[in-house]
Specification:
By secondary structure, this protein is of the alpha+beta class. The protein has a single domain, classed as Alpha-Beta Complex (Sufe protein. Chain: A), CATH 3.90.1010. It contains five helices and five strands; from the N terminus they run H-E-E-E-H-H-H-H-E-E. A three-stranded antiparallel beta sheet has the order 1-2-3, with helices on one face. It has a two-stranded antiparallel sheet with strand order 4-5. A hairpin with a 6-residue loop joins strand 2 and strand 3. It is globular, with a radius of gyration of 15 Å. The C terminus is likely disordered. InterPro entries: NIF_FeS_clus_asmbl_NifU_N.
């Protein structure tokens, strides 16, 4: 039980002291995602330097509102992907998605997910998984949109290594509320 208390403290710390919060410029793409189940919302911007999978995530900025889980997850996501290449950040996205789909059965790798391991307990509660994934799905969507919109970009590298248009693939547990996204949401 001490581990669960530590995880709760990590989530509360990121909730109270969010990293990367606040919309900033420059950015190549902005998306808006909402979790209609509980009302969590995020507007997220991505600034990339370079092209393709080797582009570096120079900045991720966001404005969000919602529960402590969604807010803390956005902060953790910022810490994990900021400064990484798109390829590295997509691997982290996959690791976090796998953790969230594990139903509490996966022992997360702290060396890979850092503070993201705090969400291991969240994966036991299906209604909370959507909260934890909201900013991650928005980041992936914005990154895909930024890469498609590059002057020399022919598409974006998704997690399976295939070229898609603006993250068109669908993931189990994806909760972005497509029907509820406004036009900024770069429809998935």
């Amino acid at each position: 039980m001490q581990v669960e208390a530590l995880y709760q403290d990590i989530i509360l710390d990121h909730y109270k002291n969010p990293h990367g919060k606040g919309l900033r410029e420059p950015f190549e793409a902005e998306v808006y995602h909402v979790n209609p189940t509980c009302g969590d919302e995020v507007t997220l911007r991505v600034h990339l330097e370079g092209e393709g999978a080797d582009a570096r995530v120079a900045d991720v900025s966001y404005d969000s509102m919602g529960c402590s889980i969604s807010q803390a997850s956005a902060s953790v996501m910022y810490d994990l992907v900021h400064g990484k290449t798109v390829k590295e950040a997509l691997r982290l996205h996959d690791e976090f998605l796998t953790l969230m789909q594990s139903k509490g059965q996966l022992e997360p790798d702290e060396d890979v997910l850092e503070d993201g391991i705090a969400f291991a307990g969240v994966s036991k509660y299906p209604a909370r998984i959507k909260c934890a994934l909201l900013s991650w799905m928005a980041w992936k969507d914005a990154t895909a949109k930024a890469q498609v919109d590059q002057p020399n970009g022919a598409g974006t590298l998704d997690v399976s290594g295939t070229t898609t248009a603006a993250g068109a693939e669908d993931h189990p547990g994806d909760h972005t509320g497509d029907e509820d996204n406004d036009e900024k949401g770069a429809g998935r």
